[in-house]
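Input record (one chain):
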Amino acid sequence: MTYNELIYRQGWTLEQKIDHSVGVVSAFLEKTDRKAYISYSGGKDSGVMLDIIRRFVDNAIPEVFSNTGNEYPEVVKFVRETDNVIVIHPEIHIKQLIEKYGFPLISKEQSQYIRQAKHTNSEKLRNIRLNGSINGIGKIAERWKFLINAPFDVSEKCCYFLKKKPFAKFQKQTGLFPIIGTMAGESRLRLQKWLQHGCNLFDMDKTASYPLSIWTESDIWAYIHRFNLPYSPIYDLGLRRTGCMFCSFGCHIKGDRRFYFLKEYKPKIYEHFMQMTNNGITYKEALRFCGIDFPDGMNKQIRIDF
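The corresponding structure, as predicted from the sequence alone:
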């Protein structure tokens, strides 16, 4: 696939995209002998995907929700009100993850690079993370290199332990493969995956379907309004994305107000998470160290003498 092809398909009408998604799922079910499940987050995207599959393809495919312990209460309540949802749980709590591995900061990719540069025993890998590979990719952005020497750890491990591992365990127990409602335009990593494999990936344990890959957020809302689809009321408070409440990936981007939202609407949860620690450093102190804007924080990067 090519980036130009993605742009072209993103310009399709809603009807064309629905037909495309139906075709993607149908082909995936045929290839996997219908051994599939719907990866359901309770958010609007996976809700649209769930409705498309139930409405146009097969209403018997099970949907599975991982209750990470880091979900908005409104989302958990909405999931519980959805029919036939299988709820699975991680084996470790977010507090334990942060204490052991570090804070999820900047992006999943950058967190991984920072963690590896700080803790790897491989000089080759450390050099790649600092300077990039031959083609210059795979390195920590210059503005975040100071985090290698931060008095706390940075890690992407929460995604693995809270979501990927529980789903992997479910897949191993059932032999089912996931149908996932992510879009290629949401991140560089998701774009790369689509460019390499398209909407369906058949590769042993990585086998998965991504029927919404060419959709945009406006398509999601258009579908919701067209079919009068119910969704979590958390969106009506102004939240654009659900996901984990205290994931800091992308919160450094100008205009991101997720922590202000939490402070206003979930003050007790906000204070609880902000006091979680790694190496004796609180989440609040780590954000301040990075110069990330948040309530009670600072709008400029400062160095703290710990």
